[in-house]
Automatic annotation (TrEMBL):
Record-annotated Alpha-D-phosphohexomutase alpha/beta/alpha domain positions: 8-134, 154-253, 261-366
Presence of the UniProt keyword NAD in the record: no
Domain Alpha-D-phosphohexomutase C-terminal positions: 372-446
Name of the protein: Phosphomannomutase/phosphoglucomutase
Source organism of this protein record: Amycolatopsis albidoflavus
Amino acid sequence: MPDLSGIVKAYDIRGVVGEQLDAALVRDFGAAFALLIKPEAPAVVIGHDMRDSSPGLAEAFADGVTSQGLDVVSIGLASTDQLYFASGSLNLPGAMFTASHNPAKYNGIKMCRAGASPVGQDTGLAEIRDTVEQGVPAFDGQRGTVSERDVLSDYAAYLRNLVDLSGSRPLKVVVDAGNGMGGHTVPTVFDGLPIDVVPMYFELDGTFPNHEANPLDPANIVDLQAKVREVGADAGLAFDGDADRCFVVDERGEPVSPSAITALVAVRELAKEPGGTVIHNLITSKGVPEIVAEHGGKPVRTRVGHSFIKAEMARTGAIFGGEHSAHYYFRDFWRADTGMLAALHVLAALGEQNGPLSALTQDFSRYAASGEINSTVGDQVARMLAVKDAYAGKSGVEIDELDGLTVQLPGGAWFNLRPSNTEPLLRLNVEAADRAAVEALTAEVLALVRA
């Protein structure tokens, strides 16, 4: 039996095309997915990003689905949240072909049940892996059919209906699509809004010729920052490769932390539904639950990752959820993540008042943070234990292991150290009262991690 544990991750499938992923294997994944959801739905909706390998792999997956008697609705080029829209609005399971921000040689599959309900390790992904490893059983009934459907305009209209920008002052906004799917979705979503879009890298190109489509890395927003200052824009937006995440910079070109965006959007959602529950993962700023509580909401802390966030939103009936990585989840969007909707909220908040974005977001940025710092290590478990041992038992220190290792220190500073699911890395996030305290604690923890 093949061992697929290296590419079947916690909440998606991802690997190097030609080495770990090929059409034959993807066809088997499609057939196994069809077997999983056959009792629930008559068809599967499939979308793909702009990577060179994506159309062929999507076609192979569709072949696997139809081989089991289910139909396929192909939406073609799409952002991941556009695929979630299709899954939600058509009430069909879905599969999105993308490796998000990973380099060009990678591709992957994000799957969901009808209504954009996530498929993760505990909700079907392990079962799909087992079916493929053991050999997909043949189906001797009638094959399914493939039809095409364009949902881009419907997706754009749905988002614009959720956020009213009709009263906004005119805004100039630089958008860096990173040669990813934002170049496909932004023109349609922003059409007719009081927003002058200054486009950067809207050409769809899965080789990412200008920079990696990973705005979490500060090196990849340098061009955006410079353009915002150059043209005197009110704000800048940067999307990742599959355009489900959106990063924001203010009028000075300074990054606005995803935690501040989470708090801002949460306050807007709580204004519509007082007392609502808001999910935040354990790496978002502690300012997020503080602000949610101050505005009458119920903050709920959870693990990192979309399948965990969505499950917790379903359990609690949460109206909104945010992550440090700029994933934003909305109950009104089938609890799925959409950076585009978060961006519209930010622009609406900016446009309904006269101050700059830096002033608007200042109230939502209470603490200093390190951002995510990655360290390549030979033994993730050993280094995690070394850090835990160094802090365990110290007076006033609280440790929890909900997701990796979170250490709360006296005085309010804290850090989280998590192993990567996909690489031999440990990811460190630190927060404290000011920049000096962040730098000191970061140095202290990294000395242990990299010893």
